[in-house]
Write a structure and sequence with these properties.
One of its GO terms (cellular component) is cytosol. The chain is an alpha/beta fold and 312 residues long. It has one domain: NAD(P)-binding Rossmann-like Domain (Rossmann fold). Helices cover 51% and strands 12% of the residues. The chain is built from 11 helices and 7 strands. The chain has a 7-stranded parallel beta sheet with strand order 3-2-1-4-5-6-7, with helices on both faces. α1 crosses α8. The longest helix is centred in the middle third of the chain and has 29 residues. It is globular and about 60 Å long. Bound molecules: NADP nicotinamide-adenine-dinucleotide phosphate. NADP nicotinamide-adenine-dinucleotide phosphate (NAP) binds next to α1, α4 and α6. The site of NADP nicotinamide-adenine-dinucleotide phosphate has 31 residues, from α1, α4 and α6.
Length: 312
């Protein structure tokens, strides 16, 4: 007899990576999944439903879920047939960029409430069932910014570092229950995410920020960030494809990067445990050797340097 389809719950499916992942899993007839694609605002479900096509109502259902609300999480889980989640994908996330002095604590807390506590809330809700059944897979969409800090992204990077530490710690205990954890670490991905951030910062005034810092942010960081997305940005389809492979794997890895072209940018951190090399070279590339930075990014974009990322 064929195995029953695995139920996959994904947060943040109104757009981007979550939407693409839901659609790809729902159409994966080889591995058979029942996808519960969730979003906080069901008014946005049109794009997902159109992309799902004939899978809608068959292998994909859409449900409301705000990762910042206990009530919403409880209600969503109670609506799942059998109440069992075999694979949880913590994908919902928000960004925050800008000079620290000009950002409110409330904005930074919102980043942690969504990116970190949102994932923790969902895991606490599905874990008892997974432990009882002695199987499960928890996928967390982290970021390369969960591995290395990036200038003017302090709060966002910190929320992803928090995820990395939390889930690496939990992974050890959960192996006893045959439950796997995978932290997926994309580099730049061309979704609404960056668009929303750039829209915010183009109108933001960043009160209490000195003119020098504002100049560094607007005239050095923002152009470099645009160039980075332009040169090594990945499509959400590509990232979703990597996650689909991870979910179908019998021994999923703890960490999975998605973008081979970004790998050289994190090498600096791994070759020098003191961290000085990364901080100094990144500082020079951003503020002093701008032309070299742009040339390097174009070189990475052309694909002449090949780095292997598993699984392919
Ligand atoms: N884009 C990148 O460059 C990049 C790189 C590395 C990692 N990531 C990570 O990838 C994940 C997906 O991002 P994306 O690039 O696909 O961006 P996206 O298109 O903006 O998707 C983010 C999703 O999270 C949802 N969300 C936000 N707050 C939520 C909440 N409280 N409850 C439920 N859902 C909520 C958004 O819903 P609404 O439509 O309602 O806002 C949206 O569906 C995030 O965790 C992000 O940190 C992105």
């Amino acid at each position: 007899m064929a195995d029953a389809p695995r139920t996959v719950l994904i947060s943040g499916c109104s757009s981007g990576i979550g939407l693409e992942l839901a659609v790809q899993l729902a159409h994966d007839h080889r591995h058979r999944y029942q996808v519960v694609a969730t979003m906080r605002d069901l008014g946005k479900k049109g794009t997902l439903e159109a992309a799902a096509g004939e899978a809608l109502g068959q292998t994909l259902t859409v449900a409301q879920l705000d990762v910042c609300s206990d009530e919403s999480v409880a209600q969503c889980l109670s609506s799942i047939q059998g109440g069992e989640v075999d694979v949880l994908v913590n994908n919902a996330g928000v960004g925050l960029v800008g000079p620290l002095e000009g950002l409110s604590l409330a904005a930074m807390q919102n980043v942690f409430d969504t990116n970190f506590f949102g994932a923790v809330r969902l895991v606490r809700a599905v874990l008892p069932g997974m432990k009882r059944r002695r199987k499960g897979h928890i996928v967390v969409v982290s970021s390369v910014m969960g591995l290395q800090g990036v200038v003017f992204n302090e709060a966002y990077a910190a929320s992803k570092f928090a995820l990395e530490g939390f889930f690496e710690s939990l992974a050890v205990q959960l192996l006893q229950f045959n439950i796997f954890i995978t932290l997926v670490e994309p580099g730049p991905v061309v979704t609404n995410f960056e668009g929303k951030l750039l829209e915010q910062v183009s109108t933001a005034e960043f009160p209490d920020t000195d003119p020098d810092t504002l100049h560094y942010f607007r005239d050095f960081y923002l152009p470099a960030s645009r160039e980075l997305f332009h040169s090594v940005g990945q499509s959400p389809q590509d990232v979703a494809q990597v996650i689909v492979k991870v979910i179908s794997s019998t021994r999923p890895p703890l960490r999975q990067q998605t973008n081979a072209r970004y790998t050289p940018l994190i090498v600096l951190k791994t070759v020098d445990p003191s961290g000085s090399l990364y901080v100094r070279i990144t500082h020079c590339l951003l503020f002093r050797w701008t032309r070299l930075l742009n040339l390097g990014l174009r070189c990475l974009a052309c694909g002449c340097l090949r780095f292997r990322i598993w699984p392919r």
